[in-house]
Structures are given as C-alpha cells and as structure tokens.
Design brief:
Elements: H1 4-11, H2 15-22, H3 30-43, H4 49-56, E1 61-66, H5 73-87, E2 91-96, H6 101-113, E3 118-121, H7 128-132, E4 138-141, E5 151-154, H8 156-169, E6 175-179, H9 185-198, E7 209-211, H10 216-229, E8 235-238, H11 241-253, E9 263-268, E10 281-284, H12 287-302, E11 311-314, E12 317-319
Parallel strand pairs: 1-2, 1-3, 3-4, 4-5, 5-11, 6-7, 6-8, 8-9, 9-10
Antiparallel strand pairs: 10-12
Helix pairs in contact: 1-2, 1-3, 5-12, 8-9, 10-11
The structure holds alpha-D-ribofuranose (RIB).
C-alpha cells in the first residue's frame, strides 16, 4: 500500500508538501497541488487516519463515557448518540466508568492521546475543573456536570412525583420506594419527587424507602427487605426499570400477585418493560431523542458554533401497563 513518502517521490515534492495538500492546511501553488493529486490518484494512496489525526490534531472521533453498558438504559442512550455522529462522519470510543473517578480520568487521558474531538459524558462524579484540563468540547447527558456545560437530561423530581401519584390513583394505600444509588443526582431527585407525594401521609416512615443500586439482582433482596418492613405496602415505585424488574421477581418469590397484591412501577422506559409478565408500568424517558440532541450539540461545539441552551430538560411520559392496573 502506498505511503505518503511514495507520493512525495512520485510528485518530486517533500512529504510536508504532500501533507499540506492532503490536509488542506497551508499554502501550496496550483502546479504543485496538481502534481500531488496526480500522484495520489496514480498510487491509489489512502491517507492514514492516525497520521491525519497527528497532523490536524483532529480524529473525527468522539468519546462516550457511561457508567455501565450492561444496564439496558445505556445501550439505548448510546444508540441515539452514535446514529447521529456516524451521519456527520464521526466514529466513537465507548467507555464504561463504573462511576469510578479514576476510570473517568483514565479514559479522558486516552481520549486526549487519540486527539478525540469531543466527548459526551454521563457522570455524577466528574468535576468541571478536570474537564477543563482536556481542552475539548464536552456535553453532559442524563446527569448534569456543571451549569456551564451543556446538559441534556429529564425532570427527575417531576417524574418521581408522577410515579407515586399514579400508584395512589390506582388505589394503593401504602407506597414504598426503591431508591437509586446515593449521590447519583437523578436517583436523589426521583426520591424527592416520591417524598413530595407521600411524606405528609400519616402512614409514611423511613422504613418505606430502601436503597438500591440501579441493579436488578440487588433489587430483589431490597424489595424483600422493604416488604418485611411493612406488610401493608401495596405499591412500589422503583427508581429505574432494572430495579423494578427485581421487584417483580421478589413479589413472585413471596407469592404476591402483581398488581392485585402489589402494584409496581419503574422509571426509564427501556424496551424490556414490554417483555415482562405482567408488563411493567414506567416513567419513560425520551432516551433516543435526548441523546441525539446531545450529539447534535457536541458537533455544533466542535464546529465552533455557539450552543444557546446550556440546560436542556426533557419531560417524562407515564406509560400505564399491567403492573399497576388495579
Ligand atoms: O437505569 C440507569 C439509570 O441511570 C437511569 O435511570 C438513567 O437515568 C441513568 O442515570
């Protein structure tokens, strides 16, 4: 396969001149340009993308950092980002951070070494100061990082309120909550939305809330704990759909019928919620639209445009299915 040196020899010019022609960077007279173009054509030279990245310090690559791709929410989120970016000629590097600041820093270092053009980050731990050190456009998706960084997320507290109110509307009299992980902003806000609805009820006490980890298996155990705290619980709001799947499993293991004995609602609107028996009610996030718009904003930043809105908040949609049909 022809190299840039072969092109230079063929056109009888320097490698630097060939590079300037290929990367359209710097002055080259018309005759020289034509000689290089003939050489490229004749030798069927394909510029090496790594070499181009080194020269232009651009790679047409975008970094995406998410906490855990094994959670079905994130593949749906990444799909919306990637479908847009590929249309604009960008490829992606996908990174699982496990909410670990050291892993986030490692991945940002790798992105810098590879001249990544920008990054879309889902994080509750990364600091604005850390990002400033990498000198590349960043957009926050699903969770905010800093008010100066364009953010695409939903109104989590409103969604938590809607979930709890729906359980009351279908006749639940005692509602428990499986909260997402501590210090994850959106989990905390969904919990606050739940409290907005129930904290003044005469039956409410702290035993009605257990802490999950946005994880399905662990939610089976904490749901059993919740139901042992108070046998009166007849409705559960889980802070995400994977925990709601765990709650369904726990109810089955306790021989509780859903929704007759206990109604269950999740949060996210992942496709799996249509596959369970009973099908799961949920607060659906506009995952694809939100992530696509985040990708559009990042490309605009890379292309030097101003992004007007820093905070882009999307509404959730209540999806009523069998698991709350009482
Ligand atoms: O299910 C994963 C959760 O983490 C979702 O609720 C999403 O909002 C993300 O933050």
């Amino acid at each position: 396969m022809a190299t840039i040196k072969d092109v230079a020899q063929y056109a009888k010019v320097s490698v630097a001149t060939v590079s300037r022609v290929i990367n359209q960077n710097g002055y080259v007279n018309e005759d020289t340009r034509k000689k290089v173009e003939v050489a490229v054509e004749s030798l069927n030279y394909k510029p090496n993308s790594v070499a181009r990245s080194l020269f232009k310090k651009q790679s047409k690559t975008i970094g995406i950092i998410v906490p855990d791709i094994t959670n079905p929410y994130f593949p749906e989120l990444v799909r919306g980002v990637e479908d847009y970016l590929i249309q604009k000629g960008f490829t992606t590097i996908l990174c699982n951070s496990d909410e670990d600041p050291e892993k986030e820093r490692l991945y940002l270092d790798v992105m810098k070494q590879k001249y990544v053009d920008g990054a879309i980050i889902v994080s509750n731990t990364i600091e604005r100061e850390l990002i400033d050190g990498y000198d590349m456009p960043v957009v926050a998706l699903d969770r905010s990082i800093h008010h100066d960084i364009p953010t695409f997320a939903i109104d989590n507290r409103d969604g938590g309120r809607i979930a709890a109110e729906h359980l009351l509307e279908v006749g639940c009299t005692r509602i428990g909550h499986i909260k997402g992980p501590d210090k994850v902003e959106n989990a905390d806000n969904r919990y606050l939305g739940y409290l907005d609805v129930v904290m003044h009820k005469d039956w409410f006490h702290s035993g009605y809330v257990v802490e999950g980890n946005f994880d399905q298996k662990q939610a089976v155990e904490v749901t059993k704990e919740l139901l042992q705290n108070d046998r009166e619980i007849d409705g559960i709001f889980a802070g995400n759909d994977t925990m709601a799947l765990g709650a369904l499993k726990a109810a089955e293991s306790l021989n509780l019928n859903v929704p007759e004995d206990i109604a269950i609602i999740g949060f996210d609107g992942i496709d799996l919620t249509e596959m369970t028996k009973p099908e799961l009610s949920t607060l659906s996030q506009p995952i694809y639209q939100m992530s696509r718009e985040a990708a559009e904003a990042l490309v605009a930043l890379i292309e030097g445009e101003l992004v007007q809105e820093k905070e882009n908040i999307f509404p959730t949609t209540l999806i009523k299915r069998q698991s709350t049909k009482r």
